[in-house]
Amino acid sequence: MLNEQIKKLRTACGITQVQLAKSLGVTKQSVSNWENDNIQPSIDMLIRLAEFFQVSTDYMLGLDTKETIDVTELTNEEIAHIRFIISDITSKQKNRSR
């Protein structure tokens, strides 16, 4: 599960294993091993991965299925705009499935 989350989040961000490794201060081989489920990242690295991808450690571990977005640096107006975008996308998806 964790290996799949790392790969999913990395590819969603459009970054390579090398870029992720460099950002975290590890080798590309470490990232490859995590994604191939050969080894697990340490607890400290799990926290760093969650912070890097701006998700909870529970999400990384598959204990929570909802992704969260850190909006602490945004204004109320910007948060409202994001909520509107999410609502718009959600309603379009619901209409497609009907």
Question: What report would you give on this structure?
Answer:
- Helices cover 65% and strands 0% of the residues.
- The chain is mainly α and 98 residues long.
- Helix 2 (17-24) packs across helix 3 (28-35).
- The radius of gyration is 16 Å and the shape is globular.
- The model has no long low-confidence stretch (mean pLDDT 91).
- It contains 6 helices and no strands.
- It folds into 2 domains: 2-61, 434 Repressor (Amino-terminal Domain) (Orthogonal Bundle), CATH 1.10.260.40; 69-98, no CATH class.
Keywords summarizing the entry:
mainly alpha, globular, 2 domains, 6 helices, 434 Repressor (Amino-terminal Domain), 98 residues
Query: What is the domain tally?
Result: 2
CATH topology annotation of the largest domain: 434 Repressor (Amino-terminal Domain)
Q: Estimate percent helicity.
A: 55-70%
CATH class of the largest domain: Mainly Alpha
CATH architecture of the largest domain: Orthogonal Bundle
Average pLDDT reading: 91
